[in-house]
Design goal:
The protein has about 180 residues and is mainly beta. It contains no helices and 14 strands. The strands form four sheets. The chain has a five-stranded antiparallel sheet, with no helix packed on it. Strands 3-4-5-6 form a four-stranded antiparallel sheet, with no helix packed on it. Strands 11-12-13 form a three-stranded antiparallel sheet, with no helix packed on it. It is globular.
Length: about 180
């Protein structure tokens, strides 16, 4: 599948990127330097649009039957996130490709995943007819104070010890479980 880039000012063709199979979803970074493509075969690719090169593959999620939207997330789009047909939300480090979290909160396919800078949170929706909000860190505007699920690596339960905690936390609901890597 070819992805064509056009200059919208002049309406002229600029270049093409080639993916091996059908592109099911695509997202641009806020600075328009990177593009993520979600492919029918379950691959997630990140392209550097300045150099027109494939710079990273992200794996672990399941996609094939449904359209699942991917997104850049976090401060300066440092994260890549996507839902999965197994009901999990996957979050990777954009620069290293390291899987940071596999979050449970849905029972069916997560088909939409989006980031809010203002709320500092990911939001997901699923075929199970639920929406989950995933605050990026303790103290984010959408963080529920009664939520006990988080990805904090600290063993200290003192609230003051989490003042600078920037780990992803789950505010979806009390039954959410999280796998941390």
């Amino acid at each position: 599948t070819d992805i064509h880039a056009y200059d919208l000012t002049t309406l002229t063709f600029m270049y093409s990127l080639n993916e091996p199979v059908e592109v099911m979803s695509m997202a641009l970074s806020a600075d328009a330097r990177y593009c993520i493509t979600g492919l029918r075969n379950g691959e997630l690719h990140m392209w550097d649009l300045d150099t027109r090169t494939l710079v990273r593959d992200f794996s672990g999620h399941t996609q094939g039957q449904y359209v699942i939207r991917c997104t850049f997330a976090g401060q300066d789009d440092r994260l890549v996130a996507t839902g999965s047909e197994d009901g999990l939300l996957f979050v990777w480090n954009r620069n290293t490709g390291q899987l940071l979290a596999r979050l449970r909160g849905h029972t069916k396919t997560i088909n939409v995943c989006t980031w809010s800078d203002k709320a500092a949170a990911l939001a997901t929706s699923s075929d199970d007819k639920t929406i989950c909000i995933w605050p990026a860190y303790r103290g984010a505007p959408s963080h529920r104070p009664d939520s006990t699920d988080d990805l904090s690596t600290s063993d200290d339960d003192d609230d003051e010890s989490h003042a600078d905690d920037k780990s992803m936390v789950s505010g979806a609901h009390s039954t959410t479980s999280i796998d941390m890597f």
